[in-house]
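sry for the spam today, last one i promise. struct tokens for design, 673 residues
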């Protein structure tokens, strides 16, 4: 955004109120220190009341008023919620779900990204917006669409099918190459004509996993094309106004690494659940991801809520102090702006009960007091604007990997890369260690510790990056379910991980899933040795949720494995076994290994889903080996550094003293060392 101080504000939907409320809002915004609002996100129906007839004058008046009051506008292109007349007049713009049901108006985001007519209508509106506003000095950024794919990520209509085929032709060139990639010789799926290639499902049983992964990539690209259509129109009108669209944390439907190349700054919406004691940690995960997606550049917290959302079954408000605490946490992690959904609580509609900066109850409220208080504190933080946070630890994350694992039929339906990335990030956060996320195809050599959670799809190029980092002296921890398939999602032969066995010194010869819920046909009766002469003496370790781990000499080892084990072949004399499984069928077999490398590098392999104790133990050791000190902090306290400032954040319910500073419950202290 074109701002020199931390951006503070909200989505602003003034069309819901009278002109008098606008006057009041502007006064209140000044009181709260609001310096930017996102305007017009859901205004299409008012901006284009009928086909091709634009009415932008009312919006211009509001932009003028805000600008005169010193409030910048993050101006939306308003394409996120098409008006009812559009769907009625052009039904082909409406999305179709997998069962062939057309999704209609009456909510929002009811559009088919591949519809030529929809793209034409979007371009028309965006051209009109650009013509009216691209030279307005009050516009500090363009907000394109809103939360792409949040509600509709795919459409199963004829135009989407046609674009999918075109995408596949560009990707594979020939039908033979597509048949190879999709392994269509299995189950008689070979296609002989491009018209036989269709979007996945509905099918009688398991759909082709390679087709599904390509469909995921295509759907992400189709929406990206739609976004870029708008971006190009806006940039042609005035290249100096930065553009963005709001991401949603890890949200799996879009490849945000790819999307991030097309925004001028990354922005994010996040709504951690205050009822969850790990909410600040979930929030930290998103903040680290957003900073990383932008290559380390500052991001904007585009949406959050001051108190409670309205879309959970029960909506707990943020606790007193948490709004300010978490907002400043985001700044300490790299945010240059803190915006909310929304400025004023709506009088009606689907989100009337969603929190806002100005609550239904008005100014005489706890929420308003905290809103004003944060505004004042953010003005003290201008010095950090534009500065970077540069962690020494990275967690590898790849959307294509997550899609491939989710689409594979077996060995487990859990979304393992997601679960493991969150678990390892969470453990680092609890230790007080900041982390980046990194794409496995990027340069990893600047990190001292690299966590590779469930890199199921390990391409040759990605293996080369990991190899390079370890050779350069990095410590790497690779977890279970890595290196099972190649770039195309085809099984790795000779033992999983064999393509990187030179680094790890191990291969996986058999996955041994645990935590299974046994299939029971007929009556489920307790086993009784008197009546179950055979069955009562049959063990079922696969039904255990966890597996004990011990040191190779049988002594205790901190932590156990959850839901997973693997048979690991150790091929290399340089490998040290750190822990072994201590359960039937895998007893005494390696569970955690490490292979030392020259120049200080080391490659760890963890053949199970370590519990928190286990992750903590591996992290303390690997952080130490990587030369990264674990800070000594009291319970509940985080200490972060950015732009020469130190931030002490007390998440706990008690007053705590740290570094000679008394921190009240849910409070922040900031100072230059
Ligand atoms: C977001 C959306 C906003 C608002 C908010 C409520 O997903 O972008 O428009 O609906 O959620 O939490």
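last one done:
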């Amino acid at each position: 955004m074109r701002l020199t101080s931390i951006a503070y504000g909200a989505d602003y939907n003034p069309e819901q109120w009278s002109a008098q409320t606008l006057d009041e809002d502007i006064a209140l915004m000044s009181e709260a220190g609001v310096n930017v609002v996102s305007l017009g996100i859901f205004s299409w129906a008012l901006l284009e009341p009928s086909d091709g007839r634009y009415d932008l004058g009312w919006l211009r008046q509001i932009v003028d008023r805000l600008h005169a009051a010193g409030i910048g506008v993050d101006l939306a292109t308003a394409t996120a919620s098409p008006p009812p007349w559009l769907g009625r007049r052009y039904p082909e713009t409406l999305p179709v779900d997998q069962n062939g049901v057309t999704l209609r108006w009456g909510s929002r985001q009811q559009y088919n990204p591949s519809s030529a007519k929809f793209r034409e209508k979007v371009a028309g509106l965006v051209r009109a917006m650009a013509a009216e506003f691209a030279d307005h000095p009050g516009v500090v950024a363009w907000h394109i669409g809103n939360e792409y794919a949040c509600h509709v990520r795919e459409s199963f209509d004829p135009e989407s099918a046609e674009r999918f085929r075109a995408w596949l032709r560009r990707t594979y060139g020939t039908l033979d190459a597509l048949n190879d990639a999709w392994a269509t010789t299995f189950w008689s799926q070979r296609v002989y004509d491009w018209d036989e290639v269709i979007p996945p499902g509905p099918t009688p049983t398991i759909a082709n996993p390679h087709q599904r992964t390509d469909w995921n990539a295509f759907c992400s690209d189709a929406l990206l094309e739609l976004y870029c259509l708008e971006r190009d129109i806006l940039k042609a009108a005035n290249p100096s106004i930065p553009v963005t669209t709001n991401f949603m944390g890890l949200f799996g439907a879009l490849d945000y690494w790819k999307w991030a190349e097309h925004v001028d700054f990354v922005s994010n919406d996040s709504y951690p659940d205050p009822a969850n004691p790990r909410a600040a940690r979930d929030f930290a995960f998103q903040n680290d991801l957003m900073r990383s997606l932008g290559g380390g550049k500052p991001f904007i917290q585009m949406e959050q809520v001051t108190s409670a959302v309205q879309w959970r079954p029960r909506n707990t408000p943020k606790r007193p102090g948490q709004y300010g605490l978490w907002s400043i946490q985001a700044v300490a992690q790299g945010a240059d702006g803190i915006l909310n959904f929304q400025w004023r609580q709506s009088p009606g509609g689907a989100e009337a009960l969603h929190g806002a900066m100005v609550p239904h109850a008005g100014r005489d409220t706890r929420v308003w007091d905290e809103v004003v208080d944060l505004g004042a504190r953010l003005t003290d933080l201008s010095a950090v604007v534009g500065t970077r946070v540069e962690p020494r630890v990275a967690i590898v994350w790849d959307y294509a990997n997550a899609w491939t694992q989710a689409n594979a039929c077996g060995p487990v339906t859990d979304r393992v890369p997601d679960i493991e990335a969150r678990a390892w990030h969470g453990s680092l956060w609890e230790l007080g260690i900041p982390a980046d996320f990194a794409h496995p195809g990027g340069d990893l050599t600047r990190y001292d510790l690299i966590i590779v959670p469930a890199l199921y799809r390990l391409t040759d190029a990605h293996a080369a990056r990991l190899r390079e980092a370890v050779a350069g002296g990095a410590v790497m921890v690779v977890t279970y379910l890595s290196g099972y398939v190649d770039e195309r999602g085809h099984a790795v032969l000779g033992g999983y991980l064999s393509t990187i066995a030179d680094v790890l010194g191990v291969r996986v010869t058999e996955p041994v899933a645990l935590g299974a819920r046994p299939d029971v046909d007929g009556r489920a009766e307790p086993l009784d040795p008197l009546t179950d002469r055979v069955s009562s003496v049959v063990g079922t370790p696969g039904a255990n949720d966890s597996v004990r781990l011990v040191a190779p000499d049988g002594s205790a080892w901190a932590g156990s494995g959850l839901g997973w084990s693997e048979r690991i072949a150790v091929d290399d004399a340089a490998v040290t076994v750190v822990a072994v499984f201590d359960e039937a069928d895998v007893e005494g077999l390696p569970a955690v290994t490490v292979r030392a490398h020259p120049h200080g590098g080391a490659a760890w392999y963890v053949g199970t889903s370590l519990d928190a104790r286990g992750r903590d133990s591996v992290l303390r050791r690997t952080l130490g080996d990587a030369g990264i000190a674990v800070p000594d902090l009291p319970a509940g306290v985080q200490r972060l550094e950015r732009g020469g400032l130190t931030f002490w954040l007390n998440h706990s319910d008690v007053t705590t003293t740290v570094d000679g500073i008394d921190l009240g419950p849910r409070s922040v202290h900031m100072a230059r060392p």
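The first strand starts at residue 7 and ends at 12. ok im logging off now
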